[in-house]
Specification:
Strand order of the largest sheet of chain A: 4-3-5-2-6-7-1-8
Largest interface: B-C, 61 and 57 residues
Oligomer: heterotrimer
Strand order of the largest sheet of chain B: 1-4-5-6-7
Number of strands of chain B: 7
Chains: A alpha/beta (about 450), B alpha+beta (about 325), C alpha+beta (about 525)
GO molecular function (chain A): 5'-3' DNA helicase activity; ATP binding; hydrolase activity
Keywords (chain A): ATP-binding, Helicase, Hydrolase, Nucleotide-binding
Radius of gyration of chain B: 27 Å
Largest sheet of chain A: 8 strands, parallel
Distance between the termini of chain B: 68 Å
Radius of gyration of chain A: 22 Å
Shape of chain A: globular
CATH class of the largest domain in chain A: Alpha Beta
Number of helices of chain B: 10
Strand content of chain A: 15-25%
CATH superfamily of the largest domain in chain A: P-loop containing nucleotide triphosphate hydrolases
Protein name (chain A): Helicase
Helix content of chain B: 40-55%
Strand content of chain B: 5-15%
Largest sheet of chain B: 5 strands, mixed
Number of domains of chain A: 2
Organism (chain A): Streptomyces malaysiense
Distance between the termini of chain A: 52 Å
Helix content of chain A: 25-40%
Structural class of chain A: alpha/beta
Structural class of chain B: alpha+beta
Chain lengths: ~450, ~325, ~525
């Protein structure tokens, strides 16, 4: 396909139509959809589910976490309150969101038999793996398929005849807690992603791509696309002037205020602290992150976007802080509490996957580190942190990360026969840093 | 500069050196791969890289000999151009390529380059480690991929000077002995990642002149100097020792001695430093852990003290248990 | 590396001696292990050069391949190796006890208990280092598809039947050693490093001589000095004083000593073949024997120091008391051994070159479960390991300061007492997180309620208090008790059942079809002299 749509909406609609045609037409057993950050993956899943249900095809939906399943149930119920939906859950306490109990059309159970006959049943891959049926479902939707492990798909694939696989190839890869090198390069390597295995065995399946990110602003989409999706580029659904951030209170000239203004103007801001080797919970960097958040709230921020021409106040709920480690997240929460900030999401990259905010404040994974490990260089980690925002992203980092990267040239081992789907973490880190350097605000707290 | 000789002169010889058994077998393998005008190698290039092309019934193997590296580089460029025009399969055995590394020209000699019938070029890397049941040591494959990526970049330089510029393939052919035999088998390795990394490294590389400028006047690495002078000379070059160096660098034992003398914690492994913050010497870390040094509000110091206390408590518990067992 | 282990390493640097990172032995050690010190020929995968092997530390069996490229000599070596290892394995296969195993009844599909045999003990193989483990796998892989004359009368170099059988056993042991906490096949450097921290890096710990130097330095020297000596010291002829633990030999040994000796051996052999009369043949045979003896002595000189080092290392480990759960994990090893014994007896073919999709997924699931089990059990068995988990925020210990009786909601109120624990630990407790403590070896669970103060954690005890309205005596901690709760579970749930290989779904390539016997490896002509 070589035609380029000037209108991103038209391009996205065409992609969605083609996906639904292949899914409902169902000439192949599977359809794969790559979705970059904020490209409307959930919307697609909900729409496909409703259309399949409408066509009278019994549907099972497989997601990876309970939160994802609950979120899909709520979205389905919102779109079509008439549709009876089954939520299959584990027998643990707190197995599902209690909000589902309020919905009359949603039936919840820990036993698949209780939900038999419902047009749509949703659960996690882990729970589906324990279900045994005589008659497979006509259709399945597998959500977050790139975060699903191949062995997890093996356990559930017998439950359905055909499936739509949807996911973001750029987020964090699934992992195993023990070595799995002995199977690397095998088409069905159990620790690889479900999509890798699926496509290795079924190379002819139709593959689609959602070409437009509705979340990322025009300032972020090109960088994220180039750095993390070099072989499957995408663009922003909005233009350079469509999103604006403004603050009622002028800058006091401090580092946090200056970086906020830079981010508001350009979409990116790098608050650079003096070079220093620090432990993970670098107190200065943690305090700097908290200070930026405090000032974002104090300065009376307001956001204008294609959703609303009138300025919408920037509230705590629209701000998130992202870190690499749990202890860093805990330290930031404590620092925010000290400043009296409540209601701001603070989490690790793993937990921020799939979420969306107006502004994110990111503690750079390599800030202050004396070394760069594979964990910190993992492309997906930086990609998640750099792609959660609708307006702007502020990165807090100590000086010297470029030099650190140069000291740790990429020496990744290579397994024969594995598919290269993604750029190198080292290279992607450099690409992002080079861009951030143009939005640098130096600050000595 | 010969780092192995230098290391011996410094009094910390490397453990490197190759067994003649490995050497003999490696040479026999490469000869086997390239025998009969490279028939086997071209067969592998065809099946692994370009199965859609015509089978390489016959292939041109141009003579690349010339005077000096510059001459060989020019000869290689000429042969590549002619082969691209001619169509069909061509095998370039030990061609010579040049790459600009930090302002000075480095000459590179890949094991082979293959020109495909469609005019595209592929790098071939021949290694003597085995492919066992289709898989090989990932660290060694990784090293081969990084090496090939450099050749790909150098080939792209040559290609860019031609019009139209031929395509340099980003999948290289890795040829290794199959299983326990000395028979060649091949695998395509995608080096896009390594190519991108190498390109950026080359762009960022400290220019060699800059290193030279930073050295004290009169620095000289000639191994016939006395050991003390050499140590001073080597110390003037910035380098950070880590245990991984032991398997890759001839000077590692020397650097390890220096790191040990300086009390650097990194000689125990790079990741070790992750939680130590600004503490870089063994002495400082131990002093901080035992409450003799450091700010207790520094999270690294606090964590170390906590670790020391928990360790002492657990060891005491174990001792008490032993005593109890003896008394019983 | 966890900070607590980093500290131990640095303390080792400071004190010049290795420091403990465990207070009990976390791996089962057999009373009669079989030690295997193999050496390999450089440049060729899985080409044995020689080995010391046996169960008697004073009388190892020396096996040598005087010309590593000669396939007949190699098979002789492998057959001799089988003659040592297989009887050792067989001696464990016969001694059985009855045990119960749950199986799925093929007719009803129900889980039923069946009585079965379990070998009373299992053979344990010890190799010096991790590269030794890889070599065991490589040997297993190179031997198990060998064709015997009986299987294939046309096979160019038929192997004695014991060779493929040993290959299957070594393959089984090699695979089992990938299971966390298993002890059928151990690399000594790994086990020692699990229990002590040296003042060098983990990479350097793979050198058995250097590792032992830190653990047990000669009187008057520091670990650092002794380790350096072990790694680097050479005699005037340029040979290492402490040869590497193999299987690779030192290049200086290969080039200066071994290669000339092999050359003399080859010459002697050629000369013998060319002998024209019996008298000459006698002389030349004597020369050949001398040449072979010379090679044997060379190989022994390289392997013997490692052999002795392995036994010294085992002595050090035996001095530690056994960890509480090590025996339970050994029982799993016994099951593994018994299972493979049965597969061999049933005439099943050797393990395939590659696992099928279902087998690979099952293995990964088992290993992840065993990893989680191992981490939990080591912490429960060893206060020093638990200290590391406490530092990481994954467990906390402290004193009970208050117990308030409370009851759960529901028709029959059951006890749900609130217990306050005062602790200096900083566990990462999420809202309503579950925590566990060991109550007479069984996990009791509780739920995090709140922090009453910065150092006071309130928990609600959830189970193991009996069926009555009042908790059974001793089932609820009392004020003043010292308790330790973990955020991780103590026991592992079984995973989901995967489909049978014949039912592999389309996403994973579909059913693999009828199993075809694996072909033998190809042989290069030039390998054969």
């Amino acid at each position: 396909m070589t035609t380029v749509d000037a209108d991103p909406g038209a391009a996205a609609a065409r992609a969605t139509d083609a996906i639904l045609r292949d899914t409902l037409g169902a000439t192949e057993r599977g359809v794969v959809v790559d979705s970059p950050p904020g490209a409307g993956k959930s919307t697609l899943v909900v729409r496909a589910a409703l259309e399949l249900a409408e066509a009278g095809r019994p549907l099972m939906v497989v997601a990876q976490t309970n939160a994802q399943v609950d979120d899909l149930v709520l979205r389905l119920a919102e779109k079509n309150p008439e549709l009876p939906v089954g939520r299959l859950h584990s027998s643990d306490a707190d197995a599902y969101d209690k909000a589902l109990d309020e919905l009359p059309q949603v039936r919840t159970s820990a036993k698949a038999a209780d939900l038999a006959g419902l047009p749509v049943v949703l659960s996690t891959a882990a729970k589906w793996a324990h279900v045994r049926v005589d008659e497979p479902w006509r259709h399945a939707i597998v959500d977050e398929a790139y975060q699903m492990r191949s062995d997890s798909l093996l356990a559930v694939a017998g439950l359905f005849e055909r499936a739509l696989f949807v996911g973001d190839p750029g987020q964090l890869d699934p992992f195993a807690i023990v070595g799995s090198e002995q199977w690397a390069g095998l088409s069905y390597d159990p620790s690889a992603s479900a999509v890798t295995t699926l496509l290795a065995h079924n190379p002819g399946l139709p593959q689609h791509r959602l070409p437009v990110s509705w979340r990322l602003p025009a300032s972020a989409a090109p960088l994220v696309s180039d750095a993390f999706y070099p072989y499957t580029p995408f663009r922003s659904g909005t233009g350079p002037g469509d999103r604006r951030l403004s603050f009622a209170v002028p800058s006091d000239g401090s580092g946090p205020d200056r970086v906020i203004d830079e981010a508001a103007a350009t979409g990116w801001g790098l608050l650079e602290l003096p070079a220093r080797h620090t432990p993970r919970t670098d107190p200065e960097a943690v305090r700097a992150v908290a200070a930026v958040v405090r000032r974002l709230l104090d300065r009376g921020g307001a956001a204008v976007s294609e959703r609303s021409p009138d300025p919408v106040p920037l509230t705590a709920a629209r701000i998130a802080v992202g870190t690499a480690h749990r202890d860093q997240a805990a330290a930031v929460r404590a620092a925010l509490a000290d400043l009296g900030v409540l209601g701001v999401t603070v989490d690790t990259a793993n937990r921020l996957q799939g979420r969306e905010y107006d502004i994110t404040v990111v503690l750079h994974p390599l800030s202050g580190r004396p070394d760069a490990t594979a964990f910190h260089l993992e492309t997906g980690r930086l990609c998640v942190l750099a792609s959660r925002h609708r307006h702007a992203c502020v990165v807090v980092c100590r000086e010297g990360v470029s030099d650190l990267l140069d000291d740790y040239p990429s020496t990744e081992p290579v397994q024969l026969g594995t598919l290269v789907k993604f750029p190198d973490g080292w290279e992607a880190n450099h690409a992002v840093l080079a861009h951030l350097a143009e939005h640098r605000v130096g600050w000595r707290p | 500069m010969d780092k192995a000789t230098l290391a011996s002169a410094l009094g910390a010889p490397s453990g490197f050196g190759q067994s003649q058994f490995a050497l003999t077998r490696g040479n026999a393998f490469e000869a086997k791969v390239k025998a009969d005008g490279g028939a086997e190698l071209l067969r592998l290039a065809h099946t692994r890289l370009d199965p859609g092309a015509d089978t390489p019934e016959s292939a041109a193997v141009p003579d690349l000999s010339a005077q000096g590296p510059e001459g060989r580089t020019a000869r290689t460029a000429l042969a590549l151009r002619e082969a691209t025009r001619a169509g069909g399969w061509t095998l370039l055995d030990h061609p010579m390529l040049a790459l600009d590394v930090a302002g000075s020209l480095a000459f590179l000699e890949p094991d082979a380059v293959v020109v495909h019938p469609d005019g595209s070029w592929s790098v071939v890397e021949i290694k003597s480690f085995p492919m066992l049941d289709g898989s090989a040591d990932p660290a060694k494959v990784g090293a081969a991929a990084r090496q090939s990526a450099v050749y790909v970049l150098a080939l792209e330089d040559v290609a860019a000077r031609l019009d139209p510029a031929p395509r340099v393939r980003h999948r290289v052919l890795l040829v290794c002995p199959e299983d326990f035999s000395n028979l060649p088998t091949g695998s395509a390795v995608d080096v896009r990642k390594q190519r991108a990394v190498t390109a950026r490294q080359l762009a960022r590389l400290t220019r060699i002149e800059e290193i030279a400028d930073a050295l004290p006047e009169g620095t000289c690495f000639a191994p016939d100097r006395d050991s003390e002078e050499l140590t001073a000379a080597v110390a003037a070059v910035p380098a950070t020792y880590a245990p991984e160096c032991l398997s890759t660098c001839e000077l590692a034992f020397h650097c390890r001695e220096r790191a040990r003398a300086a009390g650097a914690v990194t000689r125990l492994g790079r990741p070790l430093r992750a939680e130590l913050g600004g503490l870089t010497t063994v002495e400082d870390v131990l002093a901080a852990a035992h409450g003799e040094l450091g700010d207790p509000d520094d999270p690294a110091v606090a964590a170390l003290r906590r670790a020391a206390a928990l360790r002492a408590e657990a060891l005491q518990e174990a001792r008490n248990r032993e005593v109890a067992a003896v008394c019983r | 590396m966890p900070l607590i282990d980093t500290l131990a390493r640095l303390e080792a640097v400071g004190s010049g001696r290795a420091q403990p990172t465990a207070t009990v032995r976390h791996r089962h050690l057999s009373g009669r292990p079989l030690v295997f010190v193999p050496l390999t020929t450089a440049g060729e995968a899985g080409a044995p050069l020689g080995a010391l092997v046996g169960t008697d530390r004073d009388a190892p069996r020396l096996l040598v391949v005087p010309q590593p490229r000669d396939r007949d000599l190699r098979f002789t070596f492998l057959a001799e190796l089988a003659d040592v290892i297989l009887p050792y394995i067989d001696s464990h296969a016969a001694d059985v006890e009855t045990a119960e195993r749950t199986e799925t009844d093929p007719e009803t599909g129900k889980r039923v208990k069946v009585e079965t045999e379990l070998c009373a003990d299992a053979p344990q193989l010890i190799v010096p280092s991790r590269t030794g483990l890889a070599f065991v796998r490589l040997l297993g892989r190179s031997m198990r598809f060998r064709r015997t004359a009986e299987q294939d009368p046309q096979a160019p170099y038929p192997a004695p039947p014991r060779v493929p059988l040993l290959g299957r056993w070594l393959t089984h042991y090699g695979e089992r050693s990938r299971v966390p906490g298993s002890a059928l096949l151990l690399a000594l450097t790994d086990v020692l490093s699990r229990h002590w921290a040296t003042g060098q890096s983990g990479l350097e710990d793979q050198h058995l001589g250097a590792l032992l130097a830190w653990l047990d330095p000669p009187a008057g020297t520091s670990g650092a000095e002794a380790a350096r000596e072990a790694e680097l010291a050479r005699d005037p002829a340029g040979q290492l004083r402490c040869p590497p633990a193999g299987p690779a030999t030192d290049p200086a040994f290969d080039n200066k000593l071994l290669a000339p000796a092999i050359e003399r051996y080859d010459r002697a052999r050629t000369a013998l073949a060319a002998a024209e009369d019996p008298l000459e043949a006698d002389d030349r045979l004597a020369a050949l024997t001398r040449a072979e003896r010379e090679i044997r002595e060379l190989i022994e000189s390289q392997a013997r120091p490692t052999w002795d080092a392995v036994w010294r290392g085992l002595d050090l480990l035996r001095a530690l008391p056994a960890g509480g759960h090590a025996e339970e994990r050994w029982t799993r090893d016994r099951w593994s051994f018994t299972g493979h014994r049965d597969r061999v007896l049933a005439g099943e073919p050797p393990q395939p070159r590659r696992d099928d999709a279902v087998t690979a997924a099952n293995k990964l699931a088992t290993r992840e479960r065993e990893q989680a089990r191992l981490e939990a059990q080591e912490a429960l068995d060893d206060p020093l390991v638990m200290a590391g988990r406490r530092l990481a925020g994954e467990a906390f210990a402290g004193e009970v300061t208050e117990v308030v009786m409370a009851y759960g909601e529901g028709r029959r109120p059951s006890p749900r007492p609130l217990v306050t624990v005062r602790t200096e630990d900083r566990p990462h407790l999420a809202e309503r997180a579950k925590v566990y403590r060991s109550l007479a070896g069984r996990p009791q669970s509780a739920q995090f309620v709140e922090r009453a103060a910065e150092d006071a954690i309130v928990l609600r005890i959830l189970d193991k208090m009996g069926r009555g309205k009042e908790p059974e005596p001793g089932s609820v901690p009392e004020k003043g008790d010292r308790v330790c709760f973990t955020l991780f579970e103590h026991e592992q749930r079984g995973g989901a059942k995967l489909p049978d290989p014949e039912e592999t779904p389309w996403t994973h390539g579909g059913p693999p079809g009828e199993a075809v016997p694996e072909a033998a490896d190809r042989i290069t002509e030039e390998d054969v002299l």
